[in-house]
Protein 1
Amino acid sequence: MAETYDFPSDLLAGQEELHQVRAELLALLKRLPWSVEPLDGFSDDHGWRKVERPASPGWTPDEQAEVEKLRQRERELAVFVTCHRFWSEVPPAGKVDARMSVKHAGETATQPPP
C-alpha cells in the first residue's frame, strides 16, 4: 500500500494551480489557429499518412501574449512544486511515490483521472 503524505498547503495549492494553468493553456491552444504566423494551407500525401492544414491567419498579438503569460506561469509553478522544501524531507526511495501522490491529491473517487 502506498504511503500517505502530509503535504504542506502551499505545495498542494501550487500543484492545483499548475493543473488549472495547464488545462487553461491546452484549451487556449486548441482554439487558436495551427500556426502562430500567417501561413498558406497545405496538403501532403507523400508520407505514411496524409497531412492537411487549412490556411492559418496566425495568432494576434493578444493571443501570443496570453499564451506566453500562461506558459510563464506554468514554468513558475513547475519550479515551485518541484523545488519545494517538502521534497528534502522525503527519503529518496519514496520521492517518486510522493510526487505521484501530490499530483493526484486534489482528486476525489468520483473524478476520472486526467
Protein 2
Amino acid sequence: MNQHIVIIGSGFAGLWSALSAARLLVQHQREDITVTMLAPQPVLTMRPRLYEANPAALDFPLSRLLEACGVRFIGGAATKIDTQNQCIHYLPSAEKIEKTLPFTRVILASGSVLNRNNIPGAQEFAFDINDIDSARRLEDHLHTLAAQPASPGRDTVVICGGGLTGVELALELPSRLRKLFGEQALPRIIVVDSGKRIGAAFSEELGNIIATASQCQSVEWRSECRVTHIDSHGVELSDGSNIACFTSVITAGVNASPLAGQINAKRDAQGRLFVNDMLCVEGESSVYAAGDIAHAHCDDSGHTALMSCQHAIPMGKFAGYNAVASLLHISPLPYRQPDYVTCVDLGEWGAVYTETWQQRVCMTRQEAKQLKQTITHELIAPPQDRTQAFSLADPLAQFVEMTQE
C-alpha cells in the first residue's frame, strides 16, 4: 500500500522539506512512498528581499525542479487538517469545491501571517511586505505617489516596527523614493518602535551601527512609542503626536499560519507549534512542522529558531528527512543549528554582518553589502537541478554558512 507525505507550503521550509524527503526515498529506492507539495502556486518567494524595488522579480518557479526530484505538486490552499482521519481538506486553485488529500505524514510549512488587527485603521490603510502581493501593492502605491506633487504627506513614510524587516525597508526607502520622486526630493522616513533605543531588537553593538546608518541617510526613529491609529492622511502615535503621511507600513506583529491552530497541540505566544528534536509536533506522531510555524530548539543552550529563512532552510531538511525516516523505520536526525549570524541591509550606507547569538559585529559597509547580496541572490536561491538539490538537501551536509570567505 502506498504511503503519502504531504508538505503544506512552497516557502523555504516547504521546498527543502520536499527535496530532503525525495532525496532519502531515492537513496533507499522506495517508490511506494509519494511526496506531494500543496501550495497555491509552485513558486518560492524570496521573502528576505521584499523590501527591495520590483518585487515582481522575486518569485522563483519550482515546477521543473519539483518534477525532476520526483515531487508531485498540487495547486491549492489547505483549509482543514484532520489528524484523526489523516487527510487534508483543501480548495484547489481557481476552483470553488473543496477536495481531500490523504496523508501518512504531513509537514506543516505554511509560514506566518501579519497581524494588523492591533492598530485601528491598519487593515484599511496600512501596507506591508509580508508576501509578494503585499509588496506589489506597496510598489504600485509608491509609483502612484510619484505622479502627485510634492507635499509632506506624499514624501513621508512611517514604518511601524523597528525589527529586521522595518530596518531594511526604512534604510532602503530614501534612495528608492528619490528614484521615483526625483533626485531633488527629500523623502522623510520615520521608524516608530516601542524599544528604548534605536535598533532595540538587536544587540547594543549592532543597534549602534543601525543608528549611524540611519543618521547618515536622515532616517528618523521615534523610540518608546507606537502607532495607535492609521488613516489615509497619516498616523497617530502613543505620545499624542500626529504625522502626516500617505504611506504607513506594518513590519511587526507576525504570527504563525492559522493552520497551526487546527492541531490539538501546545503553541507559543506567536501561535507556533512546539516540536521535539525531530521536528515532530508534540503529541502528534504523524505531523511535523518546519519554518515559521514551528517552535523548535536549535541548540543545547536553549536558543529557539527564529522566523527567518536562515532557520527555515535547515529545519525543512531535517523535517523532510525525519518524516521519511519514520516510515522507513530508520534512525531520525535531531535538528541542531548552533551557529547564528545576522546580515542587515542598510541601504546606501552599506550593510552590517554579525556572528553568534550575541550579534558580534564582524563586517560593515560595502564589504558586508557584498556578502548580503551573495546571501540573498545566490546562497538561498532554489537549486538549479536535481543533482544540486539532492546534494544540498542532506541535513548532515555543512549548510552554506553566511560567513566571510
